[in-house]
Amino acid sequence: MGRPPCCDKVGVKKGPWTPEEDLILVSHIQEHGPGNWRAVPTSTGLMRCNKSCRLRWTNYLRPGIKRGNFTEQEEKLIIHLQALLGNRWAAIASYLPERTDNDIKNYWNTHLKKKLKKLQAGDGSSMSGGLSCDQSVPKGQWERRLQTDIHMAKQALREALSLDKPNCLAELKPSNGSYSFTKLSQPATSSSMTPYASNTENISRLLEGWMKNPPKSRAAQTNSESTQHSINNMVGTDSSSSEESASAANHDLTAAPTMLESLLNVDSSTPEMSETSFFQGESSTISDSHMPLSSLETWLLDEFFGSVKVELIDMPLGDTTELI
DNA sequence: AAGATACACAACCGCTGCTTT
DNA sequence: CAAAGCAGCGGTTGTGTATCT
Protein backbone atom coordinates (compact mmCIF):
# COMPACT_ATOMS: atom_id res chain seq x y z
CA MET A 1 0.00 0.00 0.00
CA GLY A 2 1.08 3.53 -0.61
CA ARG A 3 0.94 6.56 1.60
CA PRO A 4 -2.23 8.25 2.66
CA PRO A 5 -3.37 11.04 0.32
CA CYS A 6 -1.54 14.33 0.85
CA CYS A 7 -4.56 16.57 0.62
CA ASP A 8 -8.06 16.29 -0.64
CA LYS A 9 -8.97 18.49 -3.56
CA VAL A 10 -12.18 19.63 -1.89
CA GLY A 11 -11.92 23.11 -0.41
CA VAL A 12 -8.50 23.78 -1.84
CA LYS A 13 -8.00 27.43 -2.63
CA LYS A 14 -6.65 28.47 -6.01
CA GLY A 15 -5.51 31.67 -7.60
CA PRO A 16 -3.14 34.41 -6.49
CA TRP A 17 -1.59 34.20 -3.07
CA THR A 18 -2.41 36.86 -0.53
CA PRO A 19 0.27 38.46 1.66
CA GLU A 20 -1.31 36.76 4.65
CA GLU A 21 -0.92 33.37 3.04
CA ASP A 22 2.66 34.20 2.11
CA LEU A 23 3.31 35.19 5.67
CA ILE A 24 1.93 31.96 7.02
CA LEU A 25 3.90 29.92 4.55
CA VAL A 26 7.14 31.76 5.18
CA SER A 27 6.69 31.53 8.92
CA HIS A 28 6.16 27.81 8.62
CA ILE A 29 9.24 27.39 6.47
CA GLN A 30 11.29 29.43 8.88
CA GLU A 31 10.39 27.00 11.58
CA HIS A 32 10.51 23.72 9.73
CA GLY A 33 12.50 24.37 6.62
CA PRO A 34 11.27 23.94 3.06
CA GLY A 35 10.45 20.29 2.90
CA ASN A 36 7.70 17.82 3.70
CA TRP A 37 5.27 19.81 1.62
CA ARG A 38 2.60 17.28 2.31
CA ALA A 39 2.43 18.49 5.87
CA VAL A 40 2.44 22.20 5.08
CA PRO A 41 -1.27 22.76 4.35
CA THR A 42 -2.40 20.84 7.40
CA SER A 43 0.09 22.28 9.85
CA THR A 44 -0.35 25.86 8.62
CA GLY A 45 -4.07 25.75 8.04
CA LEU A 46 -3.55 27.09 4.55
CA MET A 47 -6.33 26.10 2.20
CA ARG A 48 -3.77 25.32 -0.48
CA CYS A 49 -2.52 22.05 -1.79
CA ASN A 50 1.06 21.13 -1.02
CA LYS A 51 2.01 21.55 -4.63
CA SER A 52 0.82 25.12 -4.63
CA CYS A 53 2.77 25.80 -1.43
CA ARG A 54 5.93 24.35 -2.88
CA LEU A 55 5.58 26.34 -6.09
CA ARG A 56 4.88 29.55 -4.24
CA TRP A 57 8.02 29.05 -2.19
CA THR A 58 10.34 27.95 -4.98
CA ASN A 59 9.11 30.45 -7.54
CA TYR A 60 8.52 33.47 -5.41
CA LEU A 61 9.18 33.45 -1.71
CA ARG A 62 12.50 31.65 -1.62
CA PRO A 63 15.26 34.10 -0.66
CA GLY A 64 17.86 35.03 -3.21
CA ILE A 65 15.52 35.23 -6.16
CA LYS A 66 16.26 38.00 -8.59
CA ARG A 67 13.28 39.38 -10.41
CA GLY A 68 12.76 41.29 -13.61
CA ASN A 69 15.33 42.77 -15.98
CA PHE A 70 17.37 39.95 -17.38
CA THR A 71 20.84 41.15 -18.19
CA GLU A 72 22.37 40.70 -21.57
CA GLN A 73 24.67 38.06 -20.17
CA GLU A 74 21.80 36.16 -18.64
CA GLU A 75 19.94 36.39 -21.90
CA LYS A 76 22.89 34.99 -23.82
CA LEU A 77 23.36 32.25 -21.30
CA ILE A 78 19.71 31.23 -21.51
CA ILE A 79 19.76 31.20 -25.29
CA HIS A 80 22.92 29.19 -25.30
CA LEU A 81 21.71 26.73 -22.70
CA GLN A 82 18.39 26.36 -24.44
CA ALA A 83 20.21 25.48 -27.62
CA LEU A 84 22.18 22.87 -25.70
CA LEU A 85 19.59 21.47 -23.35
CA GLY A 86 16.32 22.22 -25.04
CA ASN A 87 13.39 23.20 -22.87
CA ARG A 88 14.87 21.75 -19.72
CA TRP A 89 14.17 24.84 -17.73
CA ALA A 90 15.13 23.43 -14.38
CA ALA A 91 18.52 22.44 -15.73
CA ILE A 92 18.94 25.86 -17.30
CA ALA A 93 17.85 27.55 -14.09
CA SER A 94 20.51 25.69 -12.15
CA TYR A 95 23.09 27.69 -14.07
CA LEU A 96 21.37 30.91 -13.05
CA PRO A 97 21.02 30.50 -9.30
CA GLU A 98 19.07 33.72 -8.84
CA ARG A 99 16.43 32.84 -11.42
CA THR A 100 13.67 30.29 -11.19
CA ASP A 101 12.86 27.84 -13.93
CA ASN A 102 9.44 29.43 -14.21
CA ASP A 103 10.97 32.86 -14.70
CA ILE A 104 13.33 31.63 -17.35
CA LYS A 105 10.59 29.71 -19.08
CA ASN A 106 8.36 32.77 -19.11
CA TYR A 107 11.17 34.99 -20.31
CA TRP A 108 11.96 32.56 -23.06
CA ASN A 109 8.38 32.29 -24.21
CA THR A 110 7.65 35.99 -24.08
CA HIS A 111 10.93 37.58 -25.12
CA LEU A 112 13.70 35.38 -26.35
CA LYS A 113 11.68 33.20 -28.69
CA LYS A 114 10.54 36.24 -30.60
CA LYS A 115 13.93 37.86 -30.46
CA LEU A 116 15.59 34.79 -31.92
CA LYS A 117 12.96 34.41 -34.58
CA LYS A 118 13.50 37.99 -35.59
CA LEU A 119 17.23 37.59 -35.68
CA GLN A 120 17.10 34.34 -37.59
CA ALA A 121 14.74 35.87 -40.09
CA GLY A 122 17.16 38.74 -40.41
CA ASP A 123 20.51 37.14 -41.12
CA GLY A 124 20.06 33.46 -40.43
CA SER A 125 22.60 33.44 -37.64
CA SER A 126 21.61 32.58 -34.10
CA MET A 127 22.53 34.41 -30.95
CA SER A 128 23.87 31.29 -29.39
CA GLY A 129 27.40 32.43 -29.81
CA GLY A 130 28.34 30.03 -32.51
CA LEU A 131 28.19 26.97 -30.37
CA SER A 132 28.21 23.75 -32.22
CA CYS A 133 27.15 20.46 -30.79
CA ASP A 134 28.75 17.64 -32.64
CA GLN A 135 25.64 15.63 -33.43
CA SER A 136 27.55 13.15 -35.52
CA VAL A 137 29.28 11.71 -32.47
CA PRO A 138 27.36 8.79 -30.96
CA LYS A 139 25.56 9.73 -27.74
CA GLY A 140 27.49 7.45 -25.41
CA GLN A 141 30.81 8.53 -26.75
CA TRP A 142 29.75 12.14 -26.65
CA GLU A 143 28.74 11.84 -22.99
CA ARG A 144 31.98 10.16 -22.01
CA ARG A 145 33.92 12.85 -23.76
CA LEU A 146 31.88 15.49 -21.99
CA GLN A 147 32.49 13.84 -18.63
CA THR A 148 36.21 14.10 -19.21
CA ASP A 149 35.90 17.60 -20.52
CA ILE A 150 33.80 18.83 -17.65
CA HIS A 151 36.32 17.55 -15.15
CA MET A 152 39.12 19.33 -16.92
CA ALA A 153 37.09 22.48 -17.36
CA LYS A 154 36.21 22.55 -13.69
CA GLN A 155 39.82 22.18 -12.72
CA ALA A 156 40.80 24.97 -15.04
CA LEU A 157 38.03 27.18 -13.70
CA ARG A 158 39.04 26.51 -10.11
CA GLU A 159 42.56 27.51 -10.87
CA ALA A 160 41.45 30.54 -12.80
CA LEU A 161 39.24 31.72 -10.01
CA SER A 162 41.54 30.68 -7.18
CA LEU A 163 38.69 28.95 -5.49
CA ASP A 164 40.77 26.97 -3.10
CA LYS A 165 38.50 27.94 -0.25
CA PRO A 166 34.78 27.31 -0.19
CA ASN A 167 32.36 30.22 -0.31
CA CYS A 168 34.84 32.55 -1.88
CA LEU A 169 34.19 34.47 -5.02
CA ALA A 170 36.75 35.91 -7.28
CA GLU A 171 36.86 39.50 -8.27
CA LEU A 172 38.71 41.06 -11.11
CA LYS A 173 40.83 43.91 -9.91
CA PRO A 174 43.36 46.13 -11.58
CA SER A 175 46.78 45.63 -10.21
CA ASN A 176 49.96 47.17 -11.52
CA GLY A 177 48.54 47.88 -14.90
CA SER A 178 47.04 44.44 -15.34
CA TYR A 179 44.04 42.62 -13.99
CA SER A 180 43.98 39.69 -11.69
CA PHE A 181 41.41 37.74 -9.74
CA THR A 182 41.19 38.25 -6.05
CA LYS A 183 38.89 36.53 -3.61
CA LEU A 184 35.76 38.16 -2.42
CA SER A 185 33.97 37.47 0.78
CA GLN A 186 30.62 35.82 0.38
CA PRO A 187 27.79 38.16 -0.53
CA ALA A 188 24.80 38.62 1.72
CA THR A 189 22.63 36.36 -0.37
CA SER A 190 24.88 33.42 0.05
CA SER A 191 24.62 30.50 2.35
CA SER A 192 27.07 31.95 4.85
CA MET A 193 24.37 33.99 6.47
CA THR A 194 21.67 32.77 8.72
CA PRO A 195 18.66 32.35 6.49
CA TYR A 196 15.93 32.57 9.04
CA ALA A 197 15.53 34.73 12.05
CA SER A 198 13.10 33.90 14.75
CA ASN A 199 9.50 33.53 13.81
CA THR A 200 7.85 36.40 15.67
CA GLU A 201 10.61 38.74 14.70
CA ASN A 202 10.11 37.98 11.05
CA ILE A 203 6.39 38.38 11.16
CA SER A 204 6.73 41.83 12.64
CA ARG A 205 9.32 42.70 10.03
CA LEU A 206 7.04 41.43 7.30
CA LEU A 207 4.23 43.59 8.54
CA GLU A 208 6.60 46.50 8.85
CA GLY A 209 7.53 45.94 5.23
CA TRP A 210 3.93 46.17 4.13
CA MET A 211 3.43 49.33 6.07
CA LYS A 212 6.37 50.88 4.25
CA ASN A 213 5.16 49.64 0.87
CA PRO A 214 1.60 50.83 0.34
CA PRO A 215 -0.39 49.09 -2.36
CA LYS A 216 0.09 50.19 -5.94
CA SER A 217 -2.39 49.96 -8.75
CA ARG A 218 -1.57 46.43 -9.66
CA ALA A 219 -2.94 44.57 -6.71
CA ALA A 220 -1.61 41.12 -7.32
CA GLN A 221 1.82 42.34 -8.21
CA THR A 222 1.90 44.72 -5.29
CA ASN A 223 1.12 41.95 -2.92
CA SER A 224 3.79 39.76 -4.31
CA GLU A 225 6.34 42.50 -4.60
CA SER A 226 5.87 43.81 -1.12
CA THR A 227 5.93 40.33 0.28
CA GLN A 228 9.08 39.51 -1.57
CA HIS A 229 10.59 42.78 -0.44
CA SER A 230 9.68 42.08 3.12
CA ILE A 231 10.93 38.56 2.95
CA ASN A 232 14.17 39.70 1.48
CA ASN A 233 14.48 42.17 4.32
CA MET A 234 13.75 39.38 6.67
CA VAL A 235 16.42 37.08 5.38
CA GLY A 236 18.95 39.79 4.89
CA THR A 237 18.78 40.29 1.17
CA ASP A 238 17.31 43.02 -0.91
CA SER A 239 16.35 42.02 -4.39
CA SER A 240 15.53 45.54 -5.44
CA SER A 241 18.95 46.85 -4.64
CA SER A 242 20.70 43.86 -6.09
CA GLU A 243 18.53 44.21 -9.13
CA GLU A 244 19.46 47.83 -9.48
CA SER A 245 23.11 47.11 -9.23
CA ALA A 246 22.79 44.22 -11.61
CA SER A 247 21.13 46.27 -14.26
CA ALA A 248 23.33 49.27 -13.66
CA ALA A 249 26.44 47.25 -14.01
CA ASN A 250 25.56 45.17 -16.96
CA HIS A 251 29.18 44.45 -17.57
CA ASP A 252 29.95 43.87 -13.94
CA LEU A 253 32.94 41.64 -14.03
CA THR A 254 32.12 40.07 -10.71
CA ALA A 255 29.05 38.47 -12.25
CA ALA A 256 31.09 36.06 -14.29
CA PRO A 257 32.93 34.46 -11.41
CA THR A 258 29.67 34.18 -9.49
CA MET A 259 28.10 32.31 -12.33
CA LEU A 260 31.19 30.29 -12.88
CA GLU A 261 31.34 29.47 -9.22
CA SER A 262 27.88 28.00 -9.50
CA LEU A 263 29.25 25.88 -12.26
CA LEU A 264 31.99 24.69 -9.99
CA ASN A 265 29.43 23.77 -7.41
CA VAL A 266 27.74 21.43 -9.82
CA ASP A 267 29.66 18.51 -8.45
CA SER A 268 27.65 17.28 -5.50
CA SER A 269 30.80 15.93 -3.94
CA THR A 270 32.27 19.39 -3.46
CA PRO A 271 32.24 20.60 0.11
CA GLU A 272 30.73 23.95 -0.82
CA MET A 273 27.13 24.38 0.11
CA SER A 274 25.10 25.77 -2.71
CA GLU A 275 22.11 28.01 -2.19
CA THR A 276 19.84 25.22 -3.33
CA SER A 277 21.28 22.47 -1.26
CA PHE A 278 21.48 24.71 1.75
CA PHE A 279 17.79 24.61 2.34
CA GLN A 280 17.06 21.37 3.94
CA GLY A 281 14.48 19.32 2.17
CA GLU A 282 14.85 21.37 -0.97
CA SER A 283 16.36 18.56 -2.88
CA SER A 284 19.17 19.78 -5.04
CA THR A 285 18.47 18.97 -8.61
CA ILE A 286 21.79 20.31 -9.75
CA SER A 287 23.64 17.06 -9.97
CA ASP A 288 20.63 15.33 -11.42
CA SER A 289 19.60 17.83 -13.98
CA HIS A 290 22.97 18.96 -15.22
CA MET A 291 24.09 17.36 -18.33
CA PRO A 292 27.85 17.31 -18.41
CA LEU A 293 28.54 20.14 -20.78
CA SER A 294 32.08 20.78 -21.72
CA SER A 295 31.05 23.04 -24.53
CA LEU A 296 28.99 25.07 -22.14
CA GLU A 297 31.86 25.59 -19.80
CA THR A 298 34.17 26.39 -22.62
CA TRP A 299 31.66 28.87 -23.82
CA LEU A 300 31.38 30.39 -20.35
CA LEU A 301 35.10 30.83 -20.25
CA ASP A 302 35.03 32.43 -23.65
CA GLU A 303 31.98 34.47 -22.90
CA PHE A 304 33.10 35.96 -19.63
CA PHE A 305 36.84 35.93 -19.72
CA GLY A 306 36.73 36.63 -23.40
CA SER A 307 34.56 39.65 -22.82
CA VAL A 308 36.94 40.78 -20.13
CA LYS A 309 39.65 40.78 -22.68
CA VAL A 310 37.47 42.64 -25.11
CA GLU A 311 36.64 45.24 -22.54
CA LEU A 312 40.21 45.69 -21.54
CA ILE A 313 41.59 45.69 -25.00
CA ASP A 314 41.54 49.44 -25.33
CA MET A 315 43.11 50.03 -21.98
CA PRO A 316 46.84 50.24 -21.58
CA LEU A 317 46.83 47.57 -18.94
CA GLY A 318 49.35 45.19 -20.30
CA ASP A 319 48.88 41.50 -20.81
CA THR A 320 45.42 40.19 -20.05
CA THR A 321 46.19 36.60 -20.77
CA GLU A 322 46.84 35.96 -17.12
CA LEU A 323 43.11 36.20 -16.58
CA ILE A 324 42.59 32.79 -18.06
C1' DA B 1 -12.75 58.11 -22.98
C1' DA B 2 -13.69 53.46 -24.06
C1' DG B 3 -13.04 49.16 -26.08
C1' DA B 4 -9.73 45.96 -28.25
C1' DT B 5 -5.50 43.87 -28.33
C1' DA B 6 -0.92 42.66 -26.74
C1' DC B 7 2.03 41.64 -23.13
C1' DA B 8 3.92 39.84 -18.72
C1' DC B 9 3.96 36.69 -15.28
C1' DA B 10 1.97 33.99 -11.46
C1' DA B 11 -0.29 29.89 -10.91
C1' DC B 12 -2.27 25.58 -12.34
C1' DC B 13 -2.40 21.03 -14.80
C1' DG B 14 -0.79 16.77 -16.06
C1' DC B 15 2.95 13.76 -16.69
C1' DT B 16 7.07 11.22 -15.01
C1' DG B 17 10.42 9.11 -12.07
C1' DC B 18 11.39 8.05 -7.50
C1' DT B 19 10.10 6.75 -2.82
C1' DT B 20 7.43 4.70 0.60
C1' DT B 21 4.44 1.31 2.48
C1' DC C 1 7.15 -6.78 -5.87
C1' DA C 2 3.20 -3.92 -6.55
C1' DA C 3 0.49 -0.07 -5.55
C1' DA C 4 0.00 4.47 -4.28
C1' DG C 5 1.83 8.92 -3.09
C1' DC C 6 5.37 12.54 -3.45
C1' DA C 7 8.14 15.85 -5.62
C1' DG C 8 9.73 17.97 -9.57
C1' DC C 9 9.32 19.36 -14.24
C1' DG C 10 7.53 21.45 -18.55
C1' DG C 11 3.46 23.10 -20.89
C1' DT C 12 -0.43 25.86 -20.62
C1' DT C 13 -3.83 28.99 -18.85
C1' DG C 14 -5.74 32.97 -16.39
C1' DT C 15 -5.58 37.54 -15.00
C1' DG C 16 -3.99 42.18 -14.42
C1' DT C 17 -1.70 45.94 -16.86
C1' DA C 18 -0.11 48.62 -20.80
C1' DT C 19 -0.64 50.16 -25.28
C1' DC C 20 -3.10 50.92 -29.40
C1' DT C 21 -7.08 52.34 -32.18
UniProtKB/TrEMBL annotation:
<dbReference type="GO" id="GO:0009733">
    <property type="term" value="P:response to auxin"/>
</dbReference>
<feature type="domain" description="Myb-like">
    <location>
        <begin position="62"/>
        <end position="112"/>
    </location>
</feature>
<dbReference type="InterPro" id="IPR009057">
    <property type="entry name" value="Homeodomain-like_sf"/>
</dbReference>
<protein>
    <submittedName>
        <fullName>Myb-related protein 306-like isoform X1</fullName>
    </submittedName>
</protein>
<dbReference type="GO" id="GO:0005634">
    <property type="term" value="C:nucleus"/>
</dbReference>
<feature type="compositionally biased region" description="Low complexity">
    <location>
        <begin position="239"/>
        <end position="249"/>
    </location>
</feature>
<keyword id="KW-0677">Repeat</keyword>
<feature type="region of interest" description="Disordered">
    <location>
        <begin position="213"/>
        <end position="249"/>
    </location>
</feature>
<dbReference type="InterPro" id="IPR015495">
    <property type="entry name" value="Myb_TF_plants"/>
</dbReference>
<feature type="domain" description="HTH myb-type">
    <location>
        <begin position="62"/>
        <end position="116"/>
    </location>
</feature>
<keyword id="KW-0238">DNA-binding</keyword>
<dbReference type="GO" id="GO:0003677">
    <property type="term" value="F:DNA binding"/>
</dbReference>
<keyword id="KW-0539">Nucleus</keyword>
<dbReference type="InterPro" id="IPR001005">
    <property type="entry name" value="SANT/Myb"/>
</dbReference>
<feature type="domain" description="Myb-like">
    <location>
        <begin position="9"/>
        <end position="61"/>
    </location>
</feature>
<keyword id="KW-0805">Transcription regulation</keyword>
<feature type="compositionally biased region" description="Polar residues">
    <location>
        <begin position="219"/>
        <end position="238"/>
    </location>
</feature>
<feature type="domain" description="HTH myb-type">
    <location>
        <begin position="9"/>
        <end position="61"/>
    </location>
</feature>
<dbReference type="Pfam" id="PF00249">
    <property type="entry name" value="Myb_DNA-binding"/>
</dbReference>
<dbReference type="InterPro" id="IPR017930">
    <property type="entry name" value="Myb_dom"/>
</dbReference>
<keyword id="KW-0804">Transcription</keyword>
